[in-house]
Amino acid sequence: MAKYTGKSMEFKFGTFTIPSGSLTKVEISRTRDELEATGAGQQDKEFFPMERSATVTIEGWDDAAGTIRAALEYTTAEASMTFFPQGNTTGKPSITGSAFVTQFTSGVVHNQVVPFSVTLRVNGALTFGTVV
Amino acid sequence: MQYVVAAGHTVWHSKEEKVYREGEKIDLSHLTQEQIDMLVKSGVIAVMTAKEK
Known about the structure:
The structure holds 2 protein chains of 2 kinds. Chain A has 1 helix and 8 strands. By secondary structure, chain A is mainly beta. In chain A, strands 1, 2, 3, 4, 5, 6, 7 and 8 form an 8-stranded antiparallel sheet that branches. By secondary structure, chain B is α+β, with helices and mostly antiparallel strands. Chain B has one domain. Helices cover 17% and strands 30% of the residues of chain B. Chain B is built from 1 helix and 5 strands; from the N terminus they run E-E-E-E-H-E. Chain B has one helix at residues 33-41, and strands at 3-5, 10-13, 18-21, 25-26, 45-47. In chain B, the strands form 2 sheets. Chain B has a 3-stranded antiparallel sheet. A two-stranded antiparallel ribbon of chain B has the order 2-3. The radius of gyration of chain B is 10 Å and the shape is globular. Chain A binds chain B through residues 82, 88, 90-91, 94, 96, 127-132, and chain B through 9-14, 17, 19-20, 26, 28, 31, 35, 38-39, 42, 44-45.
């Protein structure tokens, strides 16, 4: 099995592609709700698997012109998102879905490059595909 | 030759910027024959049969 790095990753939100030199991390968290259904006399807990959901956290370097902030502000409308973990290259994987911004964080520290962090809520399912 | 997305697969069309799902006809004119052959060999894309046409 071939390993890979995140060096070529790309992330698009709507028509905006996060500049490659600004993108440092994309983390997709997929979870499934559960209901506990354990009753008296049961020694092993019992659960009902329920609905699935996902969030996406993007980290990178903020830009002085505010371009990234403008495209990913929490007031930005829901849009399609596409993530290319190994780049937007034929035969490589793609992850698509519809999402909206729930949080944009940017902290300014003296003598340090200013980072940003954005959290997206995926509305519906994520689709895993291949770039053609 | 005409192509469809193979069963069990979904693809992202980089030129049209849209998702195609299994069984949908897809235009691959933006790719080289070598790239198309690779996608067919890997099972992502299938050659459209006479019946599908």
